[in-house]
Amino acid sequence: MTGNVSVERSYVDGGYGQMHVRVARPEKPTKRPLMCFHLSPISGIVYETWLREIGRDRIAIAPDTPGYGMSDAPDKPPEIADFARAHGDVMNAFDFKEVDLMGYHTGSKISVELARQHPDRIKHLVLISAPVYTEEELAKQYKDMGNVTAPQEDGSHLIKMWKAIWKWCGPGQTPADLMRQFPDIVQGGEKKPWGHRAAFSYTYPETIGDVDAPILVLNTNDDLVVPTRRIKPYLKNGKVLELPQWGHGFLDYHTKAAAEIVRNFLDN
Amino acid sequence: MVDRRQRVRRTYVQGRFGQMHLWTAKSATTKHPALLCFHVSPLSGHSFADFIDQMSEDRLCIAPDTPGYGYSDAPDEPPDISGYAAAMSDLLDSLEIEQADVMGYATGSFLAAELARQRPDKIRRLVLFSAPVFNEEDRAILRGRFGDVIQPVSNGSHLIPLWHQVFDGRGPNQTVELCMFVYPEHIRAGDKKPWAPAAAFNCHLETILEQVDQPVLVANIKTEVHNPSIRAGQYLKNGKVLELTDWGHGFLQTRTADTVSLVREFLDT
């Protein structure tokens, strides 16, 4: 395994237009490639530290989901299946015959759906959260995150968006950490909630049981910790690892420990 | 998030400071030299997206993110205007551009003029939206407004002065939504945000303009550097200043078609 690799950015074409991708590529990859899908409404920026570590022995990429980061936005609100197809285009563009997936919140749902669409090519899934919501929880999620925060002349909309994220900051996360992600969090205008809405309309009990590939759910102490505990009975070939000492930002602050867990699961 | 436009695409090229992110637009018809567009600080080439979509009907248009802004890698140390322009000069070579016109907006005008000075063989004409020739009083005021890093704090209050840097300087018809369109780019450079403005504040544009032989149009829009841009007129060897006092920040979005007409008229006739 080489030392930390650099992360480069590039574009590939997908069904919705250009897809922006962060790529870590070791000199001699020895493991299956890994695709990493981000949470809403951010971008592949959440994986920058992670890619440098996990990319030491495999090609590891983090595409921006259509409508986020620097990827082109769809013209109309997509479903999770649409996002998965777009990431399937990236998988094809990189010519990955077999691949492991890692998904974070909305990205975990995209991972499950991509595994349903390509059961022969997806070998393992690592899901950072896999929430099974009650009706009340789902209604609250729509209310809290499914709407546009209209801009105001006094800038108060920015404080509202900042506080909505900051209240879930994980152990060790600093305002500077959030500020690095904040441009991607606040952009998107009217289309910004589309990722959350797609995620809330995709339910695991009906889908995750279709996946035969091994699944590891990492249940960190973030905003989805409680609903994620309910996923266990629906996993055909998977397990839930409780990580109560970690929260958002663990990929930056516990990078090596997280990589050890993920490598043990993917490579053994 | 990027809204799709007819001809606009993004790409990366390798440059002296790392990866450089470009907004490009072209069509099958190329009748005129390529047009390079250099953005105002601390925004990015995204601000030119609508403009180059229209302008590229008959030429290749390229709007790079200045190193350290948008999605271009940042230098390790703050460059001066000459260093930023050298990165753009590399771009001309790596893209094998024979001849180009160049358009600058505020800090981008410094880059455009310096690039024209460095590469008279390549740069044909210049359109500069603001071309401030600063005196020491201007410099002190602008360094006070844009020269410091506003450190992030847990309650988010740092976002408000950053918002006011955009909103309070907004131009005619630049709505709160259009201010929000540029705000993500306004904050993306983080603690390196003041680097390109500092390079401009430290630069004596007049000494560059005096060495530019190519035709120059200064479009003097009404912004915080309007008065210093009036002074540019006396240093132009082959150019003029056009007063556009009813134009302001946001003109690339609020007056896209007017901007295309104005730039075409100067470049193509």
Structure, explained:
The complex is a heterodimer of chains A (268) and B (269). Chain A has 268 residues and is α/β, with parallel strands linked by helices. Chain A has a single domain, classed as Rossmann fold. Chain A is built from 10 helices and 8 strands. Chain A has an 8-stranded mixed beta sheet with strand order 1-2-4-3-5-6-7-8, with helices on both faces. In chain A, helix 1 packs across helix 10 and helix 5 (156-166) packs across helix 6 (175-186). The model of chain A has no long low-confidence stretch (mean pLDDT 96). The longest helix of chain B has 14 residues, at 81-94. The model of chain B has no long low-confidence stretch (mean pLDDT 96). Chains A and B meet through strand 1, strand 2, helix 5 and helix 6 of A and strand 1, helix 5 and helix 6 of B.
| Count of spatially separate domains of chain A | 1
Number of domains of chain B: 1
Instruction: Determine the mean pLDDT of chain A.
Output: 96
Number of helices of chain A: 10
* CATH architectural category of chain A: 3-Layer(aba) Sandwich
Radius of gyration of chain B (CA) equals: 17 Å
Number of helices of chain B: 11
Structural class of chain A, by secondary structure, is alpha/beta
Question: What percentage of amino acids of chain B are in beta strands?
Answer: 15-25%
Greatest contact between two chains: A-B, 42 and 35 residues
Main beta sheet strand tally, sense and closure of chain B? 8 strands, mixed
The CATH H-level homologous superfamily of chain B: Alpha/Beta hydrolase fold, catalytic domain
Helical residues, percent of chain A: 25-40%
- The low-confidence runs of chain A, each spanning 5 or more residues with pLDDT under 50, are none
**Strand share of the residues of chain A?**
15-25%
Q: Regions of chain B with pLDDT < 50 over 5+ consecutive residues?
A: none
Reported by name, the CATH topology of chain A is Rossmann fold
Strand order of the largest sheet of chain A: 1-2-4-3-5-6-7-8
Number of DSSP E strands of chain B: 8
Order of helices and strands of chain A: EEEHEHEHEHHHHEHEHH
